[in-house]
Please model this.
Amino acid sequence: MLGLLDGRPRPADASLLDFGCGAGHLVDHLRRHGPGDVRYLGADLSPRFIDLCRAKFPDLDFRCVDVLREPDALPSADFIVANGVFTEKRSLSWDAMWEHTRRMIAALHSRARIGLAFNVMTWHVDWQRDDLFHLPCDTLLAFLKAEVSRHVVLRADYGLWEYTTYVYREPE
Model:
């Protein structure tokens, strides 16, 4: 997911928004492995996760945000990552989840100054689970090109049955 930052020029005070931060595990990863030169912000829909993160990391900024209801409440950042936000659809139909995902991606991209990264389950598996969101990459790419950005990188080389999409405002 942090490959989003690789090879891209970034300001000295670059910010990274961890959307759907959950319990803040990305903070631990950043502190162990870097990069150490980005300013971290966390956002989640769950007040319980935000309270937990604020207790664990009182020096960092965490926000409880419903980006679809209050898009302006989500802070802008140079880079935004949304890890695991679009992998489960639970009881939603595929069409309902795809509509939700498109709205979320558009909202997140509007707040990302340089780039956005998110992951979804691949369509190319031996079998699909009804509760997971398996999204064909050509469907995603058609949407991104038409409505978000044509500067896109797909990565499916890390051993999981998903792929990560990096969406940038500008070409490399």
Summary: Residues 104 and 166 are 15 Å apart (CA to CA). The domain at 13-168 is CATH 3.40.50.150 (Rossmann fold). The mean pLDDT is 96.
